[in-house]
Design goal:
α1 runs parallel beside α5 and α1 packs parallel to α12. The protein has 2 domains: 262 residues, 3-Layer(bba) Sandwich (FAD/NAD(P)-binding domain), CATH 3.50.50.60; 145 residues, no CATH class. Strands 1, 2, 7, 8, 9, 10 and 21 form a 7-stranded mixed β-sheet that branches. Strands 12-17-16-13-14-15 form a 6-stranded antiparallel β-sheet. Strands 3-6-5 form a 3-stranded antiparallel β-sheet. It is 31% helix and 28% strand.
Length: 423
């Protein structure tokens, strides 16, 4: 069977749904090709199932959280900003709330409500969604592109879809359980694009000799400093979590991009955890002195039992045993140093199976930032994680997907509608 449409969108995640919506709202015949049996499978697991939709920070505060070059996103952000996605969701009946750190969530705190709302609205504005559809390849032809689609659930039935423009929004390699295969990279290569090497970002970092007693501990109001080849390259404050994968949580994720990149280059990577970032060294010394006085003890007479009693005043109970194991020569004199810089040598990281986002992909330089159009083919567009564009944890990555998807959809629609004869 062979069909035709104005615009084919490959991938029904955040970027693909938004691209399809924007194009359909402008009057285009849009077909969305989704590999899974429903759209937004990755949306449904974001924010621990709550979906951190976006972050309300204005561009000048948003941009520092975008990598590797935020300027590429500027046009897309202003075309469809964090305010735009909030307004759209509210307009179609999904209420949102803003939590700490300017993070936006659905009021229901159910990620599935976001994907279902966007899918329902896409269908409402006329997007035709083909589920369980695997796009094998895309080929140029006169006045458009041809997608070869396979339907594994239908005895490997294949169809040809001819479109005047194609938007690739297939995501990256993160969370392969959601259907991520890197197919978008293959399509990009077929059209002559180079690729920036991909690697997992926003992922867990595994220390050398990781103590399993740390697993399950979550820390608030701490700081993490990243060292590469013994040089300090990043400092972050916030929350941290220890899991089976190692060090993660908001702080671990924030430093993971540079840490993973350094590990890939065989560089030495270390982390220093400051358990008391709100106290200067002098203030911490004074605090320890006061706690020792309350224990009727001095630094010189600080034995194992009193040390544990002292540590109970300075950290969570569960952290004491692994903290002591990591500092076998701990005493009253070096305790402040240990509290301000608990150091780990990082030797590995969690792969794509649990990484939140994929760094790398289609180079920014090979796309037109004002439209998201490929410089290799004027009917091919890219949006979302498939591009070499990613953000920190905190709603930035979904906003990148929404913004680039919206701009790609609007740009492709403008191109197609310009070519159509007026009624």
């Amino acid at each position: 069977m062979q069909r035709k449409c104005d615009i084919a969108v490959i991938g029904g995640g955040a970027a693909g749904l938004m691209a399809a919506i924007q194009a359909a709202e402008r009057g285009c015949d849009v077909v969305l090709l989704e590999k899974n049996s429903f759209c937004g499978k990755k949306i449904n697991i974001t924010g621990k199932g709550r979906c951190n939709i976006t972050n309300t920070r204005p561009w000048d505060e948003f941009a520092p959280h975008v990598h590797p070059v935020a300027a590429f996103l500027r046009n897309a952000f202003y075309h469809f900003s964090n305010e735009s996605i909030i307004a759209l969701l509210n307009r179609i009946g999904l209420e949102t709330v803003v939590e700490r750190g300017e993070r936006v969530y659905p009021k229901s705190m159910r990620a599935r409500d976001v994907s279902q709302a966007l899918t329902g609205y896409a269908e409402q504005v006329g997007v035709h969604i083909e589920f369980n559809c695997d796009v094998l390849h895309v080929r140029p032809q006169e006045n458009g592109l041809r997608c070869t689609c396979a339907f594994p659930d239908s005895n490997l039935r294949t169809e040809l879809l001819d479109a005047r423009a194609v938007i690739v929004a297939t995501g990256g390699l993160s969370y392969p359980s959601t259907g991520a295969t890197g197919r978008g990279y293959e399509i990009a290569r077929d059209f002559g694009h180079s690729l920036v090497d991909t690697f997992p970002s926003l992922t867990a970092l595994m220390p050398e000799r990781f103590d399993p007693d740390l697993i399950g501990i979550e820390l608030k109001n701490v700081a993490l400093q990243l060292y590469v080849d013994r040089d300090s390259v990043q400092y972050e404050e916030g929350e941290l979590a220890f899991t089976e994968g190692g060090i993660e949580g908001a702080l671990g994720f924030r430093v993971s991009r540079k840490a993973v990149a350094a590990l890939r280059k065989k560089q030495r990577v270390e982390l220093a955890l400051d358990l008391k970032p709100g106290l200067s060294r002098e203030q911490l010394e004074n605090r320890i002195t006061r706690e020792l006085e309350a224990l009727h003890c001095t630094r010189a007479s600080l034995g194992p039992l009193k040390m544990k009693a002292l540590l109970r005043t300075l950290m969570p109970e569960r952290l004491i045993t692994p903290f002591l194991a990591a500092h076998p020569n701990l005493n009253g004199q070096n305790l402040p140093d240990a509290l301000k810089a608990w150091r780990w040598r990082i030797i590995n990281h969690t792969g794509y199976e649990r990484a939140v986002v994929t760094a790398g992909g289609v180079p920014q330089s090979e796309l037109i930032a004002k439209t998201m159009r490929s410089r290799q083919n004027d009917r091919l567009y890219f949006a979302g994680e498939v591009i070499d564009l990613d953000g920190d944890t905190g709603g930035y990555n979904l906003q990148i997907a929404f913004s680039t998807g919206a701009l790609a959809g609007a740009s492709a629609a403008a191109q197609v509608l310009k070519e159509k004869p007026s009624a």
